[in-house]
Amino acid sequence: MTLKFRNRVYFVLFCINVLTFLLGLSAVLYLILNNIKIPANFQKDFDLIPFLCPYNKIASLISIIIFPFFAAAFCLAIMQGFEKTAALEIQFFTGFVISCFLESIRILIPLLELWNSYSEFVKFIGKVIIAGRVLAPLSFLFSVIFSAVDQRQNSERNMFILFLSAALLGFCYPINTASFTSNYSIAWGYKELFISIRFVLFMCTVITILQNAYIFSIKEMYAKAFSAPVFFLGYALLCSTDSFFEIAVSVPTMITGAIIYLTSIHRLEN
């Protein structure tokens, strides 16, 4: 993948996410003004601090549209700061940007009141959400494993494997279309297994970064290893957010991790 083509990809993703954010914002305002009803049987996805995180349906809606906003911001930052940087990590970062975009599909559940339906469309949305949540940690892992100079000629193949792996796992993983979570997602089967898969993928990323930092004695890699958990923790928390307190924690955490992570990549390449 040439720099020119990669930059065009980021420009297209920027435009798509800006449009998605604006449409999502319009949908959120519509749902708030029409006093959206929530299903009686929703599951509480996660509580950071239970007594500080009461369920708030507006917070759940806002958390959804934060994802395309962040995705657009990441694209803009990369187009401005990495326009001439050939780091393969930036190429694989498109996977994370796309995973953020895929989270925005959750807005269709309250907008179309899909909890009253058991159609194939509901199942499709659930599979897309799963695929996106696998794609995020997998893109970090691939950026570490396949970022060496000798992998440049295989970059297109590795990107294909990345997206194919996320899609296969996402669309093969079992979900329960009769059960919805408090942040307008579809419940998945074997929840602990799914969380474990994401955790293992991410820990492999951090361990590999630390190993490379030790082998090559490059301090920027230690900064990268520190920022990756912060970045992903903010992302994972935002995926499960249904309260304003969790938004207040996840957003600055994700921003801090992203700044340090991208800055460390930029310093490694310059």
Describe this structure in words.
This protein has 270 residues and is mainly alpha-helical. It is 71% helix and 3% strand. It contains 9 helices and 2 strands, in the order ααααααββααα. Strands 1-2 form a two-stranded antiparallel sheet. A hairpin with a 5-residue loop joins β1 and β2 (186-188). The longest helix is centred in the first third of the chain and has 31 residues, at 3-33. The protein is globular.
Summarize the structure.
This protein has 270 residues and is mainly alpha-helical.
Distinctive features:
single chain, 270 residues, mainly alpha, two-stranded antiparallel ribbon, 9 helices, 2 strands, 71% helix
What's the arrangement of secondary structure elements?
Elements: H1 3-33, H2 57-81, H3 88-103, H4 108-111, H5 120-145, H6 155-172, E1 175-180, E2 186-188, H7 191-216, H8 219-239, H9 244-269
Antiparallel strand pairs: 1-2
Helix pairs in contact: 1-2, 1-3, 2-3, 2-9, 3-5, 3-6, 5-6, 5-7, 7-8, 8-9
